[in-house]
């Protein structure tokens, strides 16, 4: 095994060097002829969240299903997606993790006008990176995401990856009543100042989790996507040794998770290679133990009685790297972001945040009520016109951002428009050459990330615990166009 990983590491670093000078869309990826055209309709619908013979739930859907339809496209092929809004309120679609033009990013007011009821908007972009991504609204996102609006976008590699099966698990929780309806109470201030709206049921691909059929001897690529509002998951695979091969769509050095536990915060994705080494007819639990005392069985890997597909496995696979510009760390521009607020945290007053925060915490958030801040400033809601940037980043330069979480709560921090290299966590070098677009920060964590600001526009940076974002844990970073005031 050690020999395998030495070979993998050498090949991974060699591949990284080959891509270091790649452009936004590499010359090695040919643009496919024509445009891949799709259509999505956003409308109310119904779903069986509690299982068969249980009351159906009223939900909001893409094309009538939750999660939304899987959109599978090709790396380097132009995509055009027409979105129709049949809700009674404005919406948008944010293509989470895709490096695309700013006016296609889906933030209402900031990057595009909202899609009004009965109207359409056409998104056009060419995905430069292969990997696992997803899409969701960025308008009234706490309720729209909480009522079901989420789907997965997979960008396939130019050359298929050699596995026996490619599986997708879209994981999310819901808060439902005994009658199976989505519970009201979105924007509860107590939750917004703590861990966010954590649900009381968990679904897999929109249904009650059941057995996952597998066969002994097969190699599976398993794509995990957490589209919850706030739930963090700590997954363990009984009797198996999953290999992490990508984080947030970006390949990393293949590695085993620390202590066998996969941490998956809201908006995060992890791609695994799992060799099915169990015995025919065997049953192996997959559990979530993130919340102490609330551990539960997510599902069971249920082996068929068939003879093993193979008895020995080929060496592990490293995914082909994407054409990300490598940060130059010799003299980066340095920036600091400090996260503050929430209950039981060190709080500073920022735009009224903290003053009277403990009063009426059981109530609902109104527009502009801030419970969190970044560098002493709070932006609430989903985005609007003329949002002032917290900082301007010189275009084309490497920027190293130090984020400090001075709160008592976990925060998956997401940057629109870019993937960043995770450099350090609490002073220790981050292992496995990790890239991400959403980094999960524990209380009191300090994380350093770096990226090349090659994509102009005003880009959101926010916590993906959606209550936290709506209550102020959000800001804007500006990458200036030529001639634009910085």
UniProtKB/TrEMBL annotation:
Signal peptide range in chain numbering: 1-20
Pfam families: Cu-oxidase, Cu-oxidase_2, Cu-oxidase_3
Keywords: Metal-binding, Oxidoreductase, Signal
PROSITE patterns noted in UniProt: MULTICOPPER_OXIDASE1, MULTICOPPER_OXIDASE2, TAT
The keyword Metal-binding is annotated on this UniProt entry: yes
Domain Plastocyanin-like, chain residue ranges per copy: 53-157, 208-286, 385-481
Protein name listed in UniProt: Multicopper oxidase family protein
Lineage: Bacteria, Pseudomonadati, Pseudomonadota, Alphaproteobacteria, Hyphomicrobiales
């Amino acid at each position: 095994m050690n020999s395998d990983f030495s070979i993998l590491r050498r090949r991974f670093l060699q591949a990284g060097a080959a891509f270091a000078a790649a452009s936004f869309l590499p010359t090695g990826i040919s643009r496919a002829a024509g445009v891949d055209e799709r259509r999505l309709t956003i409308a109310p619908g119904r779903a069986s969240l509690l299982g068969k013979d249980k009351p159906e739930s009223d939900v909001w859907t893409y094309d009538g299903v939750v999660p939304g339809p899987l959109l599978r496209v090709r790396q380097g092929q132009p995509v055009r997606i027409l979105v129709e809004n049949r809700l009674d309120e404005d919406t948008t679609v944010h293509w989470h993790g895709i490096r695309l033009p700013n006016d296609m990013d889906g933030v209402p007011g900031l990057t595009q006008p909202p899609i009004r009821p009965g109207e359409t908007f056409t998104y056009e972009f060419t995905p430069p990176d292969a990997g696992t991504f997803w899409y969701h609204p960025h308008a009234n996102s706490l309720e729209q995401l909480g009522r079901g609006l989420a789907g997965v976008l997979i960008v396939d590699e130019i050359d298929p990856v050699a596995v026996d099966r490619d599986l997708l698990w879209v994981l999310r929780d819901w808060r439902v009543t005994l009658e199976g309806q989505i519970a009201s109470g979105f924007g509860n201030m107590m939750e917004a100042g703590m861990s966010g709206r954590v649900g009381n049921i968990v679904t897999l691909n929109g249904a009650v989790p059941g057995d996952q059929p597998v066969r002994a001897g097969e190699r599976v690529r398993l794509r995990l996507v957490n589209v919850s509002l706030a739930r963090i998951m700590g997954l363990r695979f009984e009797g198996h040794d999953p290999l992490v091969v990508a984080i947030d769509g970006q390949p990393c050095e293949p590695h085993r998770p620390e202590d066998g536990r996969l941490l998956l915060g809201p908006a995060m994705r992890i791609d695994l290679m799992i060799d099915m080494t169990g015995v025919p007819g065997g049953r192996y639990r997959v559990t979530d133990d993130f919340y102490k005392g609330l551990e539960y069985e997510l599902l069971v890997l249920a082996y068929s009685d068939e003879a093993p597909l193979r008895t020995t496995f080929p060496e592990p696979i490293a995914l082909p790297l994407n054409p990300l510009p490598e940060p130059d760390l010799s003299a980066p521009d340095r920036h600091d972001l400090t996260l503050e607020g929430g209950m039981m945290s060190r709080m500073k007053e920022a735009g009224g945040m903290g003053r009277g925060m403990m009063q009426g915490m059981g109530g609902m958030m109104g527009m502009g009520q801030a419970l969190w801040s970044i560098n002493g400033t709070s932006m609430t809601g989903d985005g609007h016109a003329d949002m002032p940037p917290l900082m301007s980043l010189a275009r084309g330069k490497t920027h190293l951002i130090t984020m400090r979480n001075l709160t008592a709560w976990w925060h998956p921090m997401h940057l629109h428009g870019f993937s960043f290299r995770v450099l350090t966590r609490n002073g220790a070098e981050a292992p496995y050459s990790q890239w991400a677009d959403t980094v999960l920060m524990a209380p009191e964590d300090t994380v350093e990330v770096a990226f090349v600001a090659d994509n102009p526009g005003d880009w959101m940076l926010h916590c993906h615990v959606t209550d936290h974002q709506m209550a102020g844990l959000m800001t804007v970073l500006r990458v200036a166009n030529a001639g634009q005031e910085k």
